[in-house]
Design a protein that fits this description.
The protein is built from 9 helices and 14 strands. The protein has about 325 residues and is an alpha+beta fold. The relative contact order is 0.17.
Length: about 325
């Protein structure tokens, strides 16, 4: 991918997440997560047709037989160079959005073809994300106490000053207990850990570290964003011996560095807020239009753009109808 091409593509990608966010936000608090996901997927797929690239979906909505749109292996875009690997999450936080909670985003990442990890059928990943100050210093295989001490030293603070984001799930309880024993603060989240990973790389958010087991698709997207921001992301794929899904009997795979997950500096990441959160404001509607907030990150230069966009929904609908 050439530098001038990646610069143009970064702004094309944010139009994709804007479309998905605008479609999904209509269903905030209405209690139907399937409706949320379908609306976002439909809008994102249409918007992807205008991206001037040939993208292969590495992280999508599932296998072809289970997901009629944006399935893993699907080819998207205009079909012309550059050739890309694409990771999409039309809505990270579908249940949160359906329940009317905060921090849901629409996200997409792209990198040169062959540089992005395909986690296959490993649906879960143990994750660690930190900002640029600690890149190369922490280790996902080390005890929590050791990583927190290293992080506190790099941040020139006490362990008690650190804030760790962990997904509030029974599978992460032992990890939660370890962090508490060290005296660090914890921010519990139900889902939406892509936004949390990005926040570790932005000092104004007050988030220092992301830990714990969550979805592997979200892990790949998080790694793309964190790499582009100069931070560090490490993961371990989760397997269940015997094919069960019993959380009392799972195994962690070999440690994966951020380079193992996405191996190119030409990585692009874009996200648009669907509901209000610490990273991005959600969609706000007004008569005949809406306002969105997005973030666009270009790994090659480290450029971060925050984009506030006013959308005329009538005109957008006409264009989408013409694309179908």
């Amino acid at each position: 991918m050439l530098p001038h091409q990646s610069r143009n593509l970064a702004l094309e990608l944010v139009r994709v997440t804007e479309a998905a966010a605008l479609a999904a936000a209509r269903f905030m608090g209405r209690g139907d997560s399937h409706m949320v996901d379908q609306a976002a997927v439909d809008a994102m797929r249409i918007a992807l047709q205008s991206v001037q690239a040939e993208g292969r979906v590495v992280i999508g909505e599932g296998e072809k037989d289970d997901a009629p749109m944006l399935y893993c292996g699907e080819i998207v875009g205009s079909g012309e160079p550059p050739l890309l690997d694409v990771a999409v999450d039309p809505v990270d936080g579908t249940r949160s959005l359906a329940a009317g909670r905060s921090n849901s985003i629409s996200a997409i990442a792209a990198a040169p073809r062959g540089t992005m990890l395909d986690p296959g059928r490993a649906m879960y990943m143990n994750k660690l994300a930190v900002g640029p100050k600690c890149r190369g210093l922490v280790d996902i295989t080390k005890p929590v106490s050791e990583n927190l001490t290293i992080l506190a030293h790099a941040e020139a603070c006490e362990v008690a000053d650190l804030t760790v984001v962990i997904m509030d799930r029974p599978r992460n309880q032992a990890l939660i207990d370890q962090v508490r024993a060290c005296g660090a603060r914890i921010r519990m989240i139900k889902e939406c850990d892509i936004a949390a990973a990005v926040m570790t790389c932005q000092e104004h958010t007050g988030i220092d570290l992301l830990l714990g087991i969550g979805g592997s698709p979200e892990g790949v997207l998080s790694a793309c964003a964190v790499r582009a921001l100069g931070g560090d992301f490490q993961g371990q794929l989760v397997t269940f011996p015997g094919g069960s899904t019993d959380w009392d009997n799972y195994a962690l795979g070999k440690p994966l560095s951020v380079d193992d997950i996405v191996s190119s500096d030409h990585v692009l990441f874009a996200a648009t807020g669907v509901t209000d959160g610490e990273l991005l404001k959600g969609i706000e509607y007004f008569g005949g239009g809406a306002v969105s907030e997005s973030i666009v990150i270009r790994g090659l230069t480290g450029t971060v753009r925050r984009i506030h966009t006013t959308h005329k929904l009538g005109k957008l609908k006409q264009l989408m109808d013409q694309s179908e």
